[in-house]
Amino acid sequence: METLESELTCPICLELFEDPLLLPCAHSLCFNCAHRILVSHCSTSKPLESISAFQCPTCRYVITLNHRGLEGLKRNVTLQNIIDRFQKASLSGPNSPTESRRLQPPQRPYTATISGSIAGTIGGGGGGGTSGSSARGSPATSSHSHPHANHTNHTNHTNANHSPAVVAKMDPRISCQFCEQDPPREAVKTCVTCEVSYCDRCLRATHPNKKPFTSHRLVEPVPDTHIRGLTCLEHENEKVNMYCLVDDQLICALCKLVGRHREHQVSSLTERFDKLKQTLENNLTNLVKRNSELENQMAKLIQICQQVEVNTAMHEAKLVEECDELVEIIRQRKQVIAVKIKESKVMKLRKLAQQIANCRQCLERSSALITQAEQSLKENDHARFLQTARNVAERVAMATASSQVLIPDVNLNEAFDNFALDFSREKKILEGLDYLTAPNPPSIRDELCTASHDTITVHWTSEDEFSVTSYELQYTIYTGQTNFISLYNSADSWMIVPNIKQNHYTVHGLQSGTRYIFFVKAINQAGSRNSEPARLKTNSQPFKLDPKTAHKKLRLSNDCLTMEKDESSLKKSHTPERFSGTGSYGAAGNVFIDSGCHYWEVLLGASTWYAIGVSYKSAPKNEWSGKNSSSWVFSRCNNNFMVRHDGKEMLVEASLQLRRLGVLLDYDNNSLSFHDAMNSQHIHTFEISFLLPVVPTFMIWNKSVMILSGLPVPDFVDGVASDLLEQQQQQMGLCRQESPYLTGMKTCH
């Protein structure tokens, strides 16, 4: 036993290890002793927290500490368990005196670490827990003075060591657990090491001021349930001092040595405590953050609800106001129409009253004449009758003859035909009263749209024409981007024409031979909606032959659209831009092209020797087009068709019946293609990295040719160009520094 005790003795305090630390050099050291070593290195300029290393007292190996200090070192759990069993065996041995057993406190197996017992029991019971360092306390405060000394030392010792959780659980009526009298005296201290509460007398008897009792930790009296550690479920009276990571539960040393957890991976309670605490703190932080977000969201929702109430009241008030205005308008119109009816009534009654008065006056005159005539008829005396009746007879005859004058023109029309009321349309409108909604999207009518070389007229229709306040036309150059939503969002490139009242609009100043994307937006007070995008294109740049460039042996027509070989035409003056030299019978167009997509056709007629294409302004005028690096042409020499550039030519297939040659210059996409316009066939395409503006060029050696310019691109040509462009993008990219058609060309002799 003495040999075993020497192995369990700390090299610093020469006592059994207490809360041993496992150093990296495999030696062990009491936690308090390690703390005293660090304290010995402290100074005014070097506080305890700044010390990051110390030497092992056994082998002088330098121990490096992390930011957690001594807490970062592992506990020697196995060594602590051996010490616990050694102490238990020593107390229960046959050589121990009875009096000693009577005076000594009932020893309990010491926990693997004080942090495990304090943090796992007192801290757990108090709800707050204590860290290992706070539970242990410093070496200076862990010891206490002799029990017979002034009791203040016990009080100071206690106040310096007990945790807030323990203080919170202090009970002044806790009884001494060591007293033999009945009832026991009131406890004044609780020994955390012994896990027993003592009165003053028992404390002095059981804890003399000498080792090993000076290392016992005394606190204010606490209930026994708060100081005892948790016991193992499988081994009675064994405290849990490890944590099984496999089964995720608390275990004791026997569980690890001989129990079902012996093959399992375990960790110390402190390590598991720190990890679980950190996890809980992190989850708690996240939960608090989420609760804060939920509170903010709920506050926003409450604010929105309040705003809904405000908006509802506002719209209800607006509805009442609008309906009251409608009722007021109807009331006013009712009054106006009623006044008109009354005025018509008064006018009709006035006329009828006048007619009645006239009729009454005529009736009175007629009645008097009738009475007078009847009196005359009663006269039997012929002489008297003749004397009196002649005047009456004349008056009656006159009254009968002028009956149309005497009888007034009576208008018996009582109807109000000019006051017919028909409110069916208004009733229908009133029945359809509702909130105004955004108009349906308009539709661009491609078949009605027209274009010139610099204008496009856009036509559209709308199902809600009466509810539309205005239209807005937006357009931009089409770059080949198929994602119209992404294109529409790039607002910087869009031109906008606002406040259009008609269903059509003509855009001026556009680039020739260029594709554009158009949107039409229908707008009213409730909002707006866009039409589907429409791709429209301006026509090619129109041009004519430039007389200043025509060879002196060429004759141009008055409209400068036809050129003919004429050996007798020698009157032209020489200019730098004129084609000259033997055999260079050519002329150029009167336009330089530096953008867009342009198409023109050449009517070849009976000519069998010609060269048609484009060139830079700097191309030599005293040699054939295509003989230099500044010109590209399609040529026919009798029955051979070829393309030529930079003095190299390549045969191509074309019909001998070729009478209409189509030329497509897509400057923006670096291509020049030739087509049989009558048979809708593609002949050849040059891929050119244009560096300068180009001009159309024409050469003939027999007959004549005619130019048709400013034409829209035919569908078959546009389709071929799109296919070629897609192939170029997939295989070679948009730009080529070298033209691929040069391969396999032969020099023209």
Written description of the protein model:
By secondary structure, this protein is of the alpha+beta class. It has 6 domains: 1-42 and 49-89, Herpes Virus-1, CATH 3.30.40.10; 175-228, Classic Zinc Finger (Double Stranded RNA Binding Domain, 2-Layer Sandwich); 230-269, 2-Layer Sandwich (Double Stranded RNA Binding Domain), CATH 3.30.160; 283-405, no CATH class; 443-538, Immunoglobulins (Immunoglobulin-like, Sandwich), CATH 2.60.40; 554-729, SPRY domain (Jelly Rolls, Sandwich), CATH 2.60.120.920. 34% of the residues lie in helices and 20% in strands. It is built from 18 helices and 34 strands. The strands form 8 sheets. It has a 7-stranded antiparallel beta sheet, with helices on one face. Strand 26 and strand 27 form a beta hairpin. Helix 13 (269-377) packs antiparallel against helix 14 (382-401). It is flat and about 180 Å long. Mean pLDDT is 79; it is low at 93-171 and 731-749.
